[in-house]
Amino acid sequence: MRKLLSVIFLSTSFISGCGGGGEDAPNSAVTAVNETSKSISATWFYEYPNKCLETFQFNTDGSFEINSNQSNVTGSYSFDASVDSGERHSLTLSFEQQNQGYDCESSFDYIVGANLELFASFPNEQQMQWYESGTGGSAIFTLDRAITLSLSSAPTEAKAGEEVTFNVNKDAESDTPVELLYGPTGMTVSSKGEVKWTPLLPMITQQNTVKFAFTSDRTLEPLVSEINVTIPNFKAPTMRKDIELTHISNGMQIGNFIGDENNEMLVLDKLGGLSVISQKSDGFESIYSYPYSFGGNQNEMRLSVFKEDNGVNNTFVGTNNNIYQVSGFTQPPRSVFSTSKTIHNFMVKNIDSDSEPELIVIFGESYSAKEAVVYDNNFQTELFSFSLEGDSPIEIAVANIDSDTSLELILSNGEVFDIQSASSQWFNADGFGPIMATGDVNSDGIDEIISTEGWNSITVWNANDRSQILTINNQDNCSVATANIDNDPADEIIIGDCQWGQVHAYDITVNTHAELWTLPLIDHGSAAMVVGDINNDGKEEIVWGTGLSSSGKDILVVAGITPNPEILWHNANRESPSQYDSYIAAGWANISPEKEAAVYIIPSTNSGYIRPRYLTMNEDGEVTPNYNSSSNILEAALAAIGDIDSDNYDELFIFGTRNYSPSLNVIELESDISKWQVTTEDDSSNYNALEVTDINNDGYDDALIATYETLTVHDISNNNILATWTASSAITSITATTSTLGEKLVILSTRDSLTTLTFENNKLSMRSSSVNSEECKSLYAQPQTDSVLCFSPEYSYQGNLVTFSLDLELLLKARINGEVTGLIQLPYSDNVLITTNSSDNNYYSQSSLISEVSTKTGDIIWQGYPLAGEVMGNSIKFGKIGKDTVPLVFGTNVGMFLTH
């Protein structure tokens, strides 16, 4: 404000008694013929050479506000709106308040109390000049009138597939049309400000908020708005994984969870995912996985299932600070309880005479003081609470363990509370132990407590008289369950050993026990033992996890009880790995006349003990593993889909070995046969990048392979090397594109440089090169704009999307908050879809966000609900794109996904 302040301080005297509130009203109600009337009620601005904007807001109530960098000044003004033609308008400013911020010229002067008379003229409708006097002299300022944009007829709600129209309006005329600063793919704005858009979003959630912004010349702030889009006929993302197990004592539950009137097993696994396992053919498979993330520390999540009177099982999942309900497995989880405290454990249980369940929560860190709180069936009203003894981890059970009719709350630290009277009934200072169950094992009509610390005997407690009924001398206990597995009325005790042990069944008679039978664990340890009719044969089975306590594979075991105890099934077959360690999407493939599917590679299986594989998954979620592949796939996270014989059916390009030398395998997906193998001169497994494209225009896809510092272009169909290029250091990323002029180009990055290569006449030649000052990690072609996009990480969870021309001229740079793990270019748009890892401020929280992002501004246009796991190896591709669908194919460390 130096120009304005100089007038104030050079004036010999301030005008006094101006009295603000004069507004810009004319001197009379009727304007004379030779008079000119103007209004200054608007926002005006002056741009300094350093690009700093100083704004002057004149309001109709006679007040004004000046903002200049950090400086803010307010006051009142009087304006002579009507003057004779050719004369200047008198303007008096009274400065009443200001902060202590520095202005655009980094200065500060105190001007409160000053009154300044100026004179204004208007060279045109969009400019105002200020003078010190009514005539003569030079203008102090030339201010431009800011344009404010507004929307008319803009909806707040829209449906995907139905066109939306509205208008962007200016409050003043200008020659520059309204521009879409950023917005969703397909949104357009005409020169008259007419906006059209037909929403088209990937089906991640049924509803999403889509943001967009408009700007124009002399618009100081973009007009930002949003529309909530609902997707009719929504279908949740399909997620599949192999069988994953759990460490949690109640992490496996048997019941009807998908509404098919049959039993399945629900698992909250060690990676924080929720899956349904069901019998299929002569075995068991993970038939459904919940695609949404719960957040929080995956190692501290808990599961509780409440069965209603109508047989419906309600699923609840607890994290560090939230308890979620999962309804129907088709929508994101709904938070039913949230707290700033740390949730250590919880249970949803009907503890009174009504039909609705209550909530029991244990608060506290694992090895710190804890509190138990019981909430009413609204999960908000506290019924009562207890401070707990000790600081050990706590397991929960609710049962009637004495002679009254009230249920008791039993905690593994040794405390027992009567729920009806909210009183402490018993405290066993030694504790019961973290391996705990309840059941009527002596057929007296009252449940007993069965518990152990793990490495000592199993104790059966009578809570009525606080006595030990008996002990079972088994010194190696990892899991315990009770169930009536014979013909007597009492429950039996089933114990799973730790290490390389057995499963034992015991029958209790008065104060003695007898071992009924034993079964082998199959592998190391036992976890989450549960009893129920998992195969719907009318008889109960015992199910447990094993192998979790070793570095090898994890195995699910299903054992029959009657007529003879036996192992019915386990997934330890070498040809059918017990678990896949991560999932990377290769893309969507046309496999045969009858089959199209997404293709995923599995870099390792069985904790790395079994060779990698690939899988296919169709739109119905049916998964087909390749058990008999001849490819001998390498543990590499690089794969692509292409058609090397131009038969309209795709092949999988994936790295494997040939006579123990690394090679690129091209696998015919229909037959699962490796039909071509391409070796390189580099015998190491340093495959840095792979791109599949028809670079020589012969109608057959070729392979571009980067091994360390060498780029090799292979004509697969003719078994011929077309060209090579040697970089100065290791190649980190490559992308191929065809320019709008038809040029075949390859762009590659190393740690130090970016290079654009032209491919012509089976030869690579340098078109341009530049220093990789942006430290590009990944390259992505943008063929519709003759540009290339790179992601440049700055910190763990922040980076830049940088756009270069094909000659590597820096065009745009946009900041992205998040660790970008994958990116795909949206068709006919400057926008991209990115995947970012959402840390939830917790190292052990694994989830991913899919967002549509403007490459011009870096603004997030929409963002989906967090999905389970972290996206692996740039693993996001388009599925089978239809007229009204944008399906996505991607893989995370916990499963494979397909949106619809």
Report on the structure:
The chain has 900 residues and is mostly beta strands. Among the domains are: 144 residues, no CATH class; 78 residues, Immunoglobulin-like, CATH 2.60.40; 128 residues, no CATH class; 138 residues, Methylamine Dehydrogenase, Chain H (7 Propeller), CATH 2.130.10.10. It is built from one helix and 75 strands. The strands form 18 sheets. It has an eight-stranded antiparallel β-barrel. Strands 68, 69, 70, 71 and 72 form a five-stranded antiparallel β-sheet that branches. It starts with a helix and ends with a strand.
Percent of residues in helices comes to under 10%
Count the beta strands: 75
The spatial strand order of the largest sheet comes to 2-3-4-5-7-8-9-10
Mean pLDDT: 90
- Using only C-alpha atoms, the radius of gyration works out to 36 Å
Q: What does the main sheet amount to?
A: 8 strands, antiparallel, barrel
Strand content: over 45%
- Shape from CA axes? globular
Count of discrete alpha- or pi-helical segments spanning 4 or more residues: 1
Which residues sit in consecutive blocks of at least 5 with pLDDT less than 50?
12-23, 25-29
Structural class by sheet pairing and helices: mainly beta
Rounded to the nearest angstrom, the distance between the terminal CA atoms is 57 Å
